[in-house]
Model the fold of this input.
Amino acid sequence: MSAGIDLQNVSCDFGSFRAVDNANVSIKPGEFFSFLGPSGCGKTTILRMISGFIEPTQGTICIGGKDMKGQRPNQRPTALIFQNLALFPLMPIWENISFGLEVRGVDKATRRAKAQALLEMVDLPGAADKMISQLSGGQKQRVAIARALAVEPAVMLLDEPLSALDLKLRQHMRAELRAIQKRTEVTFIYITHDQGEALAMSDRVGVMSQGRIQQVADPREIYNNPVNGFVASFVGENNIFAGSVSNPSGGMAGFDTALGPFRARLGELAKGNSIKLYVRPEHTILSETAAAENSIPVTVSEVSFEGAFIAVHAQTTTGQIIVAEVRNDGSATVPEIGATRFAHFNAAHASILPDSTVVA
Amino acid sequence: MGDMIRRYGPGLTLLVCLLTAFWLVMLVIVPNITLLESSFRPYLPVVDIGGPKDLYTAANYMKVFNGAIEVSPFGFSFQIPVHVLTFSLTIFYSVVVTLICFALAYPLAYFMAKILSPRSLPTMFLLLFVPLWVSEVLRAFAWWIILALKGPLSWILIQLHLIDHEVRWIVGYNGVMIGLVYTYVLFMIFPVYNAISSLDSNQIEAAEDLGAPWWRIHWRIVLPHAKPGIASGAVMVFMLSAGSLLVPSILGSTTSQWFTQTVQQWMLDALDWNTAAAYAFLLLVMCTLFVSLVMKIFRVKLSDIAN
Done:
């Protein structure tokens, strides 16, 4: 039922603007795959190329091993969930859901039964005869999912469908989407600019920037081992230090900065001179005494309470502000503003990476 | 009202209200009431006006049923009063004009709203409006020339070997319909264009993504959405066509008669303004009833059209 998708050297130009540049990615059947990136990075263009609304300028797109060149959206085994859902406001809900079946010439009784079954699956029994305008945001979401599932697509394409929902509902729908995907075993391709969404739901994530896929990996790998500064900064927060590499050996290297020498893991792509050191705030520890290595004397300048953690902003001797996160579980004391401390981090938790995007 | 006074001050508000009231009362209500009143009075010599013979009567309206003639459409012959026939043909051909306008306007409106790039849109609007720079009379005469027996249309078709001798195009209601479609098609294009451009393009894409072929997308998504626009366009084209006098007068043939021409003949040839008024009212009332009926059948509400 579900199908894999292969993008081979796919590029897409709009006039002189290259929206997608040489994308290569292989998505497995039944996988929950997210394209993550800021707006304008080309992720929606990729989605529209897969669904058939845009033809790639170069390269091939295969769905289930079949080249999709020249196939219109209504000929492809994909179902797209639009950002604004694009439900049909003039049809009752059951007709919305069964529209794809109506197109395929299924008789009315069967369509209605199928719509009922799908409504139960998305937890909306009894909504069949309501109109779209009578539903709340989350319910519309479910109808859109049901409408897409009704045509039994091999691939579901989702274009930021949760962006219009409030935080609580969004978190609930994340779990729901994931559950539906597991149940139906359909390949899901999910487009989002929300890193939390991508990390929480996906089997694998493709991080995009400026039309290029920067890194494809599972969420842990993306967060813990970003390949470059863009991925590191887009997915989570960082304290960033400029400097230069010295004595690389065995995957580790020294890193000389204005704040003194550090030691950190050396990223594979960290070559040339535009490289920086990235440390996550949750790996940055504040203590009263200096540590053996990677230790920076700082003055606490701001303390902001975030709920689950407390973000402590501290100024170094060069004026750079670095952020350390203290868990709000009473295990660590929160320093006063103006207190002097040492910020330090474990070399295994710091990465030396090319500072921006890969332009290979 | 309070909001208007606060915003524009009492002077300007009063002026706007007075002008609106003047327009409504003096230019719409009073003339129509005068017409309605005179339609119920007999046509009398001046000396008898206001005299004992000047009584209210519906006789003027009854004249519609005078003078039966025999017609035999499709070999089925029956007697029908000549003015009732004229009226029926006027309604029938106005409906045909409305349908032709819709058939022309819908694809063009869809093209303008969803396919044409917004940069080309002003050019398109200009092209559509250019004919309006010339007066309606001249445009009707232009068509009269184009459609003439030895006119340009016949000539071009002969040159293209599509016909082998000149054709008399203005026969029966042909000329009237061509002229009316040409004159009123814009009144269909713009409401339909407005309605279609308010349709979210994602809905069209969603339908296509779900496998719908183009005709089903139009039938299930675009047409239902455009229904209020189509209805208001249809009402305008129909009412304007049925009430048109100029086009049927210029582009009519010897066998065409429009109900407005009958009204005009009562008024100018028979000089019987009372009967003319009665006929004019009949046309207004019957057309309104017809439009209401059609709107009921297609389940269009007046409030939909107003939007």
About this structure: Strands of chain B lie at 68-71, 78-81. The longest helix of chain B spans residues 2-39.
